[in-house]
Amino acid sequence: MARTDKFRLQHNELMALANELQGMLNEDALSQDAAAARRCLGNLMGKLTMHLSTEDKVLYPELEANKDPAVASLAHRFASEMKTTAASITAYNGRWSTPSAIKANAHAFIKETKEVIKILSDRIKRENQELYATADRSEGKAF
Question: Which of 12, 84, 111, 112 is deepest in the core (most CB within 10 A)?
Fold first, then answer.
């Protein structure tokens, strides 16, 4: 079992919710009823919040303390980048916090949601390929 299997599983769950949300991005449908999209977005944000919290408390600190400067530097870079990304995603979630906000401007919601899903997807891919692969090879206690 890889050290990062739990994190990778969380990534799979996040992407499943992101794909579910993406499947709801129909302007006509959202203009009529956005409750399901808001529920899905809420589920996605809840899982993402838990995932980020675990990374912040467990993964990043351990890797930043690694005796290999390349590992520590990589972890620091990912942690720093995520702070900016998390702030943007939190702001996005706040703008679309109710079904009525989504219904009132479905076009903008769709545009922003596609951007957020791309950011999330790209980040997950980079974490899986770079950060988690490095974590799995690094020395130290298991996560």
Answer: 112
Domain coordinates in residue numbering, the chain: 5-23+33-137
CB neighbours of 11 closer than 8 A, spacing ≥ 6?
51, 124, 127, 128
Task: Work out the angle between the directed axes of helices 106-126 and 5-22 (0-180°, nearest 10).
Answer: 160
Q: How many other C-beta atoms are found inside a 10 Å radius of the C-beta of residue 26?
A: 12
CA–CA dist 109, 25 (Å, integer): 8
This prediction's pTM: 0.92
Q: Which DSSP letter does residue 130 get? A: I
Cα 5 to Cα 29: distance, rounded to the nearest angstrom:
37
Task: Give the burial string for 55-85 (b: 16+ CB within 10 Å, else e).
Answer: beeebbebbbebeeeebeebbeebbeebeeb
Tens place of pLDDT per residue across the chain (143 aa): 788 999 999 999 999 999 999 999 999 999 999 999 999 999 999 999 999 999 999 999 999 999 999 999 999 999 999 999 999 999 999 999 999 999 999 999 999 999 999 999 999 999 999 999 999 988 654 44
